[in-house]
Amino acid sequence: MDMDVTSYLKVYNNFLDSDQCKQTVKELEEHSHQFQQHQYYTEQLGYHNLNGNKELDISYMNTSTRPYIMQRLWDAYNQYIVKDLDFPWYNAWVGFSSVRFNRYNTDSIMTNHCDHIHSLFDGQKKGVPCVSALAILNDDYTGGELVFWNDQVIKVKTGDMIMFPSNFLYPHKVNPVTSGTRYSCVSWCY
């Protein structure tokens, strides 16, 4: 199979039910105090903030829609790894992380990065993140574009699921939100 790195980035349109997305956003807004500012981890600095108060907010809130989202994440990982990539030899993945919710208020961003997530592993879980899953929960905001490789904007709308390898070949960022609030959720397969 001769593929370039862009062919491993998949967008599944309408993968999450729009009513489930609306309910999730409603609950996230009702419990907005459960969000905290996102931080990055490096061996040299530990957990730290790269952008002051411009970095997005995150939460592991237990919404009523969490079971639905977790099931759809499982479905997405199976679709991506087992069916779409068609790698019958790849059977090393053992699980995936609990869903994390992301909130981007006006002017919030996510710095260009790759998904080598250290916080997944607490000593009981062991592995390396191999696939990232990102789901879009709303699209009633402006700005906040998802950008890969510094110049490839991925057009997304409510319910879309984006899947890609969690390694250094997939640097991505979220541009500043210019109005409204952008909600998404993420998980990592290991």
Task: Tell me roughly what share of residues is in helical segments.
Answer: 10-25%
Order of helices and strands: EHEEEEHEEEEEEEEEE
User: Quick one: biggest sheet?
Assistant: 7 strands, antiparallel
CATH C-level class:
Mainly Beta
Oligomer: single chain
Mean pLDDT: 90
Structural class: alpha+beta
- Please give the order of strands in the largest beta sheet: 1-12-8-15-6-5-2
> Which fold does the CATH topology refer to?
Jelly Rolls
What is the CATH-assigned architecture? Sandwich
- The tally of beta strands, per DSSP, is 15
Number of domains: 1
From the alpha-carbon coordinates, what is the Rg to the nearest angstrom? 16 Å
Q: What would the principal axes of the Cα set say about the shape?
A: globular
Report the end-to-end length measured between terminal Cα atoms. Answer: 23 Å
Strand content: 25-35%
| CATH homologous superfamily (4th level) name | q2cbj1_9rhob like domain
Low-pLDDT stretches are none
Describe the 3D structure.
The chain has helices spanning 18-30, 66-84, and strands spanning 10-12, 36-37, 40-42, 46-48, 57-59, 100-104, 110-113, 131-136, 142-143, 146-148, 152-154, 161-165, 172-174, 177-179, 182-189. By secondary structure, the chain is an alpha+beta fold. It has a single domain, classed as q2cbj1_9rhob like domain (Jelly Rolls, Sandwich), CATH 2.60.120. The strands form 4 sheets. It has a 7-stranded antiparallel β-sheet, with helices on one face. It has a 4-stranded antiparallel β-sheet with strand order 7-13-10-11, with no helix packed on it. Strands 3-4 form a two-stranded antiparallel sheet. A hairpin with a 3-residue loop joins strand 10 (146-148) and strand 11 (152-154).
